[in-house]
Each structure stands twice: as C-alpha cells, then as structure tokens.
Write a structure and sequence with these properties.
This protein is α/β, with parallel strands linked by helices and 359 residues long. Helix content is 28%, strand content 23%. The strands form 3 sheets. The protein has a 9-stranded mixed β-sheet.
C-alpha cells in the first residue's frame, strides 16, 4: 500500500477533477503490476495495473489507495475490471464518498466473491486524496496557503520590496509545490507588485504548471504583464465582480483570461466561500494560495485554509514591514484559528513548516 500511495503521488495536480490513485498488484510476495491515474484522469490506476500485469493479475491481491470506481463514464468501472481480471483479493485504503461509488465498488467486488479489506494506511491515503475528498464532500477544493516570510512574519519591507526574503532552495521547493496543485491563486496586490508568472520553472516540470487565478474585483491588473502575455496559451482565470467595468471585462477576455463572477458581501468584498465553490464546480480539487495578506486573512477568517506551508527566512524585517496575514479582528487569543504542525524541514538557510488545520 505504501508503494501504491507513492504511485498516486506521481500526478497530483494533473488528474483533476479525478483523484490521483495508485494500484499495486502482487502475487506470492512479488509485484506483478503497477498503475496510477494518468494525466487528465485516464486511464485509471486499476486498469493500468491490470494491463501491465497481464495474465499474472489472475489470483493476485490488488492494493488500491481509493475504492475502485463503480460507474460508467469515459471508461468502464474499475471494480468490474478487477473482477474480470480474476484478482483474488482487494485491499482498499479508503472508501470513495462520491455518490456514484460510495461503497458500491466494494459491494460489487464482494458480491463477485472477492475478499475485500478496507482501512490499510487510511490516514495517509486520506491526506493524499484530500483535495478530491474536499470537492466531493464540501463542494470546494482543498486550500493550501503558502507563506514566505521573515522570522517576524513579514512578506515585504515597508516599501513593498520582497525579493528575495527566502533563498534559492526555498523558492525551488515552492515551485515543486506548484507542480502538485491544480490551480494557484493570488490577490490583485501581489499580481501588480510582483508581476508573477505563477508557473513551475523546475527543469522538466514546466508542463505541470497549474491553472493561474488572480482575485481582481475591479479588474485593475495591467494587461501587459507576465500573466496577460501568456493568458491565451495557459489557462488563466480572473475572479471578479459582475459589476466590473464592461470595457475592462472585454479587454481581459480578448487577452485570453476567463472571468469568474463572484458575489460581494455587505462590505463590497468578494465571498471567499462562493469563490471556492465555483472552483470546485470547475473541477479544481487542490488550490495553492500564494498571497497576499488580505487574501490570506479572508480565507483564514472563513476557516477555509486546510494546509499551511510556512517558509521562514532567518531574518527580521520589523513592525513596519508588510504582514503575511492581514488583520483578523480577534478580541482574545482563544479566537485565533489553530493549526497542527505536521512537518519541519530545512530548505537551505530557510525552514519550511507544514501545518494542517486543527478542526
């Protein structure tokens, strides 16, 4: 199962709206077939493992990170493929909450006389599949917030200068994260100040760049920047208000941007929960948020951040620097959102701390 989880991790960020699944077929202690969900969601892991195993699949045990699908889409059900291949046993890490499956794949296998067990390495599988599970159960993608700050939580100096707070190794790891997410989101301020490309620039991984999304309620983004120059060739979305200037809307669309209209609240701010639901409707399962402070605060305040990647540079900028998370309006420390530290690693001179929401 650990090997199957490793296979599932191969195409994180590349299979949406489908989950990234891994499957290993073993017989008499020998692996006879390996499979993983391919780019675009097809073929599925089970059918690929069966294809690779050939006749050796008969009598084998299948280790699968997510319950085999049980419905017809562009391909037939994986539960049926396992039955037809003659596997003797199926070990499933977690059940699939998708109503089209939801225990049906397991039931079909058992009805065919196949021994099925569920729950092996379930916690690890749920963490790996969190984006898909969130989209199915909460109608929104999993949200990971990435911060790169000084030790005192500043993302820029008072003048707005931010290049570079963290070192080369930390920036390279941040690009690796981009390759593992379906989409990346930044606020207008970040897009205007940094003129980012929001792609993955690691050797060999350029094709794994995520969908690029900018939150721009008033369509203030310049149309001669890095994002605009490549909007026609790379999926690029702008989250805005339906009340935005019609001339600007037409200009953005002619540049290649897809506009997503989101309702505003009483203060004229875009509703972050509705925004995430719209991303989920479009198939996004894993969303990486890279700034800025007001966008981070809106998501944290709404309890919509599931993971937190915090890169800390060994430096101090001071109280006049720009904060990573804007004001949350808390009255007491007890009101503060809580996160659980799950991993700490060095990235050159910097430190990366990974947290998950403590709900």
């Amino acid at each position: 199962m650990r090997a199957a989880l490793g296979l599932a991790a191969r195409h994180l960020g590349q299979t949406w709206p489908n989950p990234s699944v891994g499957c290993v077929l073993a017989q008499d202690g020998v692996v006879v077939g390996r499979g993983w969900t391919d780019i675009g969601g097809r073929p599925h892991a089970e059918t690929e493992a069966i294809r690779r195993a050939g006749k050796a699949a008969a009598g084998a045990t299948a280790y699968v990170t997510l319950e085999p699908c049980n419905h017809y889409g562009r391909t037939g059900p994986c539960s049926l493929a396992l039955i037809e291949a003659g596997v003797a046993r199926v070990v499933v890490a977690i059940e699939d909450p998708d109503p089209r499956v939801s225990g049906g794949g397991i039931a079909r296998l058992r009805a065919a006389g196949i021994d099925v067990s569920v729950g092996l390495m379930a916690e690890e599988a749920a963490a790996l599949t969190q984006g898909f599970l969130s989209r199915v159960t909460q109608s929104r993608p999993m949200v990971a917030l990435k911060l790169a700050t000084s030790l005192d939580g500043r993302i820029a100096t008072a003048s707005g200068a931010s290049r570079w707070i963290t070192g080369e190794e930390a920036r390279a790891y941040a690009h690796l994260l981009r390759a593992q997410y379906d989409a990346i989101l930044v606020g207008t301020g970040t897009a205007m100040a940094d003129d980012p490309r929001l792609d993955c620039r690691l050797p060999g991984l350029a094709a794994r760049s995520p969908v690029r999304i900018v939150l721009d309620r008033h369509l203030r983004l310049a149309l001669d920047n890095n994002l605009a120059r490549t909007a026609a060739s790379h999926p690029s979305w702008v989250v805005t208000s339906k009340d935005a200037d019609q001339t600007r809307r037409a200009a953005f669309q002619s540049q290649g941007f897809e506009l997503i209209d989101i309702a505003t609240d009483g203060d004229g701010l875009l509703d972050p929960a509705q925004m995430l639901r719209e991303f989920g409707n479009r198939g996004i399962t894993r969303l990486l948020v890279e700034g800025g402070g007001r966008l981070a605060a809106s998501l944290v305040a709404a309890d919509l951040v599931d993971l937190l990647y915090w890169f800390r540079a060994p430096s101090l900028i001071g109280g006049d620097g720009r904060e990573a998370v804007a004001a949350l309006g808390l009255l007491t420390p007890d009101e503060a959102p809580r996160f659980e530290l799950t991993r700490t690693m060095r990235c050159g001179v910097d430190t990366l701390e990974t947290y998950r929401a403590d709900r």
